[in-house]
Amino acid sequence: MLRQPPGDADILGIVTRNAILWEGHLFFRASSIALAFAMLSTVPAGAGDLASAYRIIAGKEFVDLTHSFGPTTPVWSGFGQATFTPASDPKTRRPYTIKEDGFRTTTYDMVGQYGTHVDPPAHFAEGGITMDKIPLKQMILPLIVLDNTPYQKRDDNHAFSVADLKAWEDKHGRVPKGSFVALRTDMYKDWDRDPERFKRAPFPAWAFETIKFLYEERGVVATGHEAMDTDTTDKMDSETYILTHDHYQIEVMANLDKVPPRGALIVVTWPKVRGGLGFPARAFAILP
User: How many CB atoms lie within 10 A of CB 133?
Assistant: First the structure.
């Protein structure tokens, strides 16, 4: 039996059925996509990003940029050494002990600028913000490490200049806006090994012009260094500039030789002392 060629009505029916099937396919795809977006919308915004960021950070190497300190560690002679004594019951003056009381603790008598520490603007500026007012977002920043040690082979007390900075940028790229910039001098190695040498003056430091350039031309947020002072000028020009321009600095940093020139993050924090003018800080780097 021979089949008759399809007529116009048959062709129209085929086209209609195919169109319905295709429309259903498109509807199913559109519905699936809509459902996927609806499911995604139930995940808290940023939760996946933070979880991914934590997994990345947890797998990185951390470098402590902080010195341990005690009653005998170096400090500016104008402040004097700290004293650590067992805390006592104010009524009996008997020191608390684990045997008698189930706990023990210590009373610390020291200046705020002790060990690795933060200098907030109010340390030098009458109307500057205190350490409890420094924004939290300024406590985790991209870290740039400038290496002064090659210049110290010729001059042990070399002040890192703008020319040195531009030479660094020629090799490593422009210092990014919003970063924390630390000066490596390797002075930290004398902290425990030779405390008297650590306290020497003069010492390798920042040049004042470099500090101004970093803040004015590169827009950095904060700076730090290994010495107990920012520069060797009589009037502490660099520190005065930093703090009176509403920036903070970290002094007496350690282990900067273990951090790459760029690519790391710095996390730095300190107790939230109301109206605080400085305090020991804890700083560490997360390597790329």
Answer: 14
